[in-house]
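Task card 7
Instruction: Convert sequence to structure tokens.
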Amino acid sequence: MWNDLVTYLQNNAFDILVQVRDHLTVSLIALLIACAIGVPIGYFASESAKGERIMTIPFEVLRVIPSLAILVLLIPVLGTGTAPAAVALTILAVPPVLLNTIAGFRQVPDFMTECGRGIGLSERQVLWKVRVPLALPMIFAGIRTALIEVIASATLAAKIGAGGLGEIIFTGLGLNRADLLIIGGALVAALSLGSGFLFDLVTGYVLRYKRAAG
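Output:
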């Protein structure tokens, strides 16, 4: 087994790097789109309970549909490749970003916003200088969850020709080769953990004001 692992890695190092690149590319595209959708909608949904129900239910309904089923349904519309994979992964990534954004804005204490208004800040300034900074930790937590879920689920992209580490895993399943399953699974796990760690570093840097305030 060990010899098979080493031999495969030595003979396919370049292909593996390409698959890692493709895996990260489709994952990051989906995450960026999810943030562009989830954060603004989450902000507006946090303003009222009725708005939250209206804006979150469609994404929650879509989320219960298996990603593979969504990929198959998108093939007649978007064909194969990165586009349908990114759409399916975006649907998976939006809910944690959306829900955490709602929670983040709702947990901002009222007295903080009132203090901002009391010192003469406009509503826009209250939003960007008070509410957004205080909501960021929760928003970032949702983005981190979405990031890990997307990277772990992006293996399905290989099913429709979008590349990624799923190619190694599905080849291993087809050929009944445990070494390929181990390599593919280990690489996906490493990407998920590594991305989470890097995101934590970025979050710590962006939120350094909280440590300074503490």
